[in-house]
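Service request form, structural biology core

Requester: graduate student, group of Dr. S.
Request type: structure prediction, single chain
Budget code: on file
Notes: please return the result as structure tokens.

Sequence provided:
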Amino acid sequence: MLDQKSSKSALLVVDMQEDFCPPLSLKNGALAVPGGRDIAPTINHLLSLPFALKIATRDFHPPDHVSFDTSHPPPNNKAFSSCVTIANPQDSAEATSIPLWPAHCVQGTPGAELVPELDTSKFDRVIDKSRDKRVEMFSSFADAFGNKSAQAASFDLAAFLKEKGIQRVFVVGLAGDYCIRFTATDAKKEGFEVFVIEEGVRSIVDQGEKGWEAVKREMKELGIEVIKRDSDEVLRIAS
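Core staff response, request fulfilled:
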């Protein structure tokens, strides 16, 4: 029988996909996070623990997604350096700027698949996100404007967790300075206790004003706990 901590806790494994990991073939790794595959053993250990729910997320872009460099004409379409302005699909008066990336995690391609190192049999559900070509969606909960829609994600993650009585969310995966950051922040906004397990995260950038170290400080200011895999919170799940 699950104890009280386990029965109200979910493990969220964010975007452990082929295109976000150093490639094993020329078909994958379009936006590889350094050391991305190295965290799979830690995640598998966590998957072996009796969390009430274990959920994987996947970026699942259409081939003409607005964040892709290939979706825009030159010269201002350079991945990693160019930005574009996008409008809120639900309020055209609202806009924001997003960075451009190489095409990645395209629906139906090998790069969108979860890496084979993961024990995917342990997942209760997989949520596909960022499916709306018009808008960026780093978070597993909502798009860049805070919208939730069936077009953008395969289900409403917050509603599902709350329906199942989840109160605490433990987050691991890729990348710390983007999808982990926004997923953890939105989970906190939704009213969950949030724990990011550091050994289960890798980032595109570690240092600097937008790197992982800065993100950790930002999350801690929001009440999000950045913990170790042998922390008391994790050990309570294991016990």
